[in-house]
Please model this.
Amino acid sequence: MSTLFSKPLSVLNLGVGTFADAIRQGGGEAVHIEWAPPANGDRATGIALAGIVNHPRVEAANAKAVERLLAAQPRLEGIGIAREALPGMGRRMILHAGPPIEWSRMCGPMKGAILGAVLFEGWAANSKKAQALAASGEIDFAPCHHHSAVGPMAGIISPSMPVWVVKNATHGNRSYSNLNEGLGKVLRFGANGAEVIDRLKWMQQTLAPTLQAGLDRLGEIELKPLMAQALHMGDEVHNRNAAATSLLIKRLVPALMRSGAPPADVAAVIEFMAANDHFFLNISMAACKSMLDAAHGVPGSSLVSVMARNGVDFGIRVSGLGKRWFSTPAPVVNGLYFAGYSMADAAPDLGDSAITETAGLGGFAMAAAPAIVKFVGGSAQDALANTLSMTHITLRRNGAFTLPALDFAGTPCGIDARRVVDTGILPVINTGIAHKAPGVGQIGAGVTHAPLGCFTQAVSALARSINPLARSINPRARAVED
Amino acid sequence: MARMASAAKLIRNLYRDSVSLMQLSATLAALPGIEQASAVMATPANLALLAEAGLERGRIAPGPNDLLIAVRGRNASVLESALASAVADLDKPPPLTAAGGPAQTPLRSLQMGLAQFPQANVALISTPGEYAAAEAMKALRLGLNAMLFSDNVDLHDEIELKRYAQANNLLLMGPDCGTAIIGGVPLGFANAVRRGAIGVVGASGTGTQQVTCLAHRQGAGISHAIGTGSHDLHQQVGGITMFQGIRALAADRATKVIVLVSKPPAPEVARKVLGVAKRCGKPVVVNFVGAAPESIGGRNLHAANTLEHAALAAVALSRGRRPPREYSASQPGAPPAAHGDRMSRSQRYVRGLYSGGTFCYEASALLGAVLGKVWSNAPVDPKRRLANVRNSKGHTLIDLGDDEFTRGRPHPMIDFRLRNERILSEGADPEVAVILLDVVLGFGAHPDPAAELVPVIEKAQAAARRQGRDIAFVGFVCGTELDPQGLERQEDALRAAGVLLTGSNAQAVRLAASIAGARR
Model:
């Protein structure tokens, strides 16, 4: 009001487009907003949102949460055994990707992977008995995220599996991920045949101790600089990890050679890593998890701290809303499919790997990875556009992860659930696509978006926590009789 | 299942990345007659995959730097053309990167708009009413003043929004605010007027348009015209925006005179408004449309009995002159005698077809005072509410901008269909002597109202004349020569069609009354 008459009129126009033309004709400045009813027209959510837009408490909480996200310093500390390393890991517990889900509702690849884990643990002698055990309720199933862990695709972690241990040196929290098995018939896509179990045994008995010997020699690896360098080499550290894997190998090889581990094991471990461009993915995910866990738990914050899928549901968690999940059915990815496969064969979106996007990498850093841009079906400019569009739903730019193609601007990070609902711009996720039947494996890859429903639920819940008593705007449309 | 044929083609030493090849595969698979297609670099792993998919049976010996295309489909000719198209596709030069940089994300929200245009200071909101309150609240929370053009906002929401605005030193104009002019810039439906010393606070959009146009036509100008929205002087809202408007104009150095325009508020609210006006330190002209002006008075308060009177009083005051006590100066003379001559004995009644609600309301008061019973869908006297808005009786004034007519169609200032139909049906009524029309120009209004009205007026008149009648079309144009439609052009076209044009609503009503009065 005080400045309305003293400053040149500059108008944001919402609704009738011609009003903006009139303002410009009349000598004013006007920008038309391509508005659509927020939250798909759900009025109650729209009103809840209006009550927390630019709310001082939320703004302060977000500033704090995103500051913690940016300040986190993930370091690869070593390799542990899930049952010893993971907080709260039970002896008969199997962790899975995404939000909580009971056995009967799980998707094919997750069920297949769980049977594989049961066999790997020796809890059952054959697949049929494993099936009966899994269905019996005697195994505790829990999301990786409930134990500071993440896993790609089915995300299965059972007590004897080796896990990467990443420590956030700034805030002291640790996060975990399983080790990447490679491509083809692998547990994370639900395969559970002998070759899969044998490989898991080898990873447990040879890969893990050899890598640990190398890491003992090398010391902790600072992960942010390594990931930043990989971004400059064409990775977005979700769907492309070729550079990061190479950088990791480069660091590990001399240490492995000098570690005193049996040379045959060292050779096998190096071959194993070199054969898998995605070897770094699980470390990238654990690093992102450690940064986001640091940002979680700031009361009032609308920062999204988890996005994860279990092949049935897509769930998110929000910094200021504690342990609650906000879930909605997971979409089937409309991506590029390998020969012979189509959307009809695909499991709905699966895996914890969207933790990378949650941390401002993956799809949010698409501008760094022109080599995979064709998944969006377009030009390198589209990759830049994808990254730029994410700046409208995020709180900050991450100066630690810069994008050469955008003049070294930082990656957009800290998803604000309010802005997602207000703009309808959905977080972009680069992802692999699993076959819906267990064990077939990856059948494609593509770009998908987090579903709006999770964010509308979260915004409503946050609004209730901020304005518990406020009637605020009346959700019932009632015309005034004048 | 029909037998399928398969074929493969090997291109030596041609590398393409896997994503490009997946795209090529998808393109090939979509060709008619093709069941499956795969283009891959011929690595052992890929060959194994192809074998698994039944596409390749080891007939060729490729190397990992070779590109292999394998297809399966209806017959050999289909396969051949698919392979040819694949080769053509691989030969194509890569598309040039789009010029001009990456696509911009369209602005989707007020917050996004503000991030890009931090100098923004007003949000103009004309979304469907059910979403408007939420957007207004966002605007205010973001520190923006807001004009809420939308209507059908809950009264409690309006109160909450206005209190929030007031507490945060922001202005919320509306809901149902049709017109504002801030620093010479039109918001919503507004006319192009020169800048000057007269400030307006209006609860009525068309009322504000009439006052600003008439002041302009007197050579004066407008500092700011603030719209309050039509519910602001509701007892429950209590005139929050009007008080803010008066105070803002009182503090504004460009403003010398303030005009308040509103339908008559509840007495209690009126007292408060007049109280604030009395203390504001500047001359204030008050037009409570349709109300007797006696209740208004005081050193700096000047009552106006019509919108025109309000404009003339403000112009006089802005020039340091005494305002005319009551409007009378350009009282129209007797209607052209020829009209009475050509009318039939049955023609007695006035039918007003208004696009501006406040004009209709003012006419209801002025005409009622002269002709007695005047029916309307928006009457000053509730006893004169028309039972069926589709059927006129006696003297009738219709506000075609009323909810009843605008549901599901644009406002009659933009869309003339409804009014044109009604002109024809009223013209066919043998009892109708006068058809009274308002024509509103300005930003937001129809680009050429005369072009819509003239053919219909001529048609109605021709039909009446065939039956030995002659209709007096009486009207006025609310606009200025600066408006996009051009005042003179509009007036000339209407005059040429035989419309008796006056300078204002009040004058048009008096002319209509004198024609009809002479028929009694």
